[in-house]
Amino acid sequence: MSFHLSLNTETVMTAYPDDPIIVAPDATASEVMLLMQIHKSACVLVCEGGKLVGIFTDRDALRWMALQSAANAKSRSDQPIGELMTARPASLSSTTCVGEAIRKMSAGRYRHLPIVDGNQLAIGVASVNGIVRYLVEHFPQTIYTLPPQPGKVPSEREGA
């Protein structure tokens, strides 16, 4: 199968999505950060009635801590995550092709995108790690033969 054909026909569900870690909007910042630490996850999805309403990522956590630090305020770990999350996040449909997921992640500079079904229920999280794993496993010749600096070809062969 060709590189382009595969990226435009296989869905994002084949690109090793993470299982979603779901919290309610009233979960506290400390609860959410503990969940992220336990699950070694860089994001949680915030859902109400099962439907995606927001995302809280490691970037959101850093931004929140920086604001607390800049204001010399004591960090409110009991603050509801609904106040700290990114509301109405960009998301992917479970039928989105891998190529479109890569384009959307690149354009928005996202490292994680929620994957939702037709009813806006969170069913997974597309991550940069999963996409890269997919590319390496499906296209090893293309990936492993890339030069260290694309666009620059060495003038002479390396090695013995």
Provide a descriptive summary of the structure in words.
- By secondary structure, the protein is α/β, with parallel strands linked by helices.
- It has a single domain (3-141), classed as CBS-domain, CATH 3.10.580.
- Helices cover 39% and strands 19% of the residues.
- The chain has helices spanning 3-9, 29-39, 58-70, 81-84, 98-108, 128-138, 140-144, and strands spanning 22-23, 43-48, 51-57, 86-87, 92-93, 112-116, 122-127.
- Strands 1-2-3-4 form a four-stranded mixed β-sheet. The protein has a three-stranded mixed β-sheet with strand order 5-6-7.
- A hairpin with a 2-residue loop joins strand 2 and strand 3 (51-57).
- The longest helix has 13 residues, at 58-70.
- It is globular and about 60 Å long.
- The model has no long low-confidence stretch (mean pLDDT 87).
Write a concise synopsis of the structure shown.
The chain is of the alpha/beta class.
Task: List the defining traits of the structure above.
single chain; alpha/beta; CBS-domain; 7 helices; 19% strand
Write the layout of secondary structure elements.
Blueprint (H helix, E strand, L loop, with lengths): L2 H7 L12 E2 L5 H11 L3 E6 L2 E7 H13 L10 H4 L1 E2 L4 E2 L4 H11 L3 E5 L5 E6 H11 L1 H5 L16
Parallel strand pairs: 1-2, 5-6
Antiparallel strand pairs: 2-3, 3-4, 6-7
List the strand order in the largest sheet: 1-2-3-4
Give the biggest sheet: 4 strands, mixed
Residue windows where pLDDT falls under 50 for at least 5 positions: none
CATH class: Alpha Beta
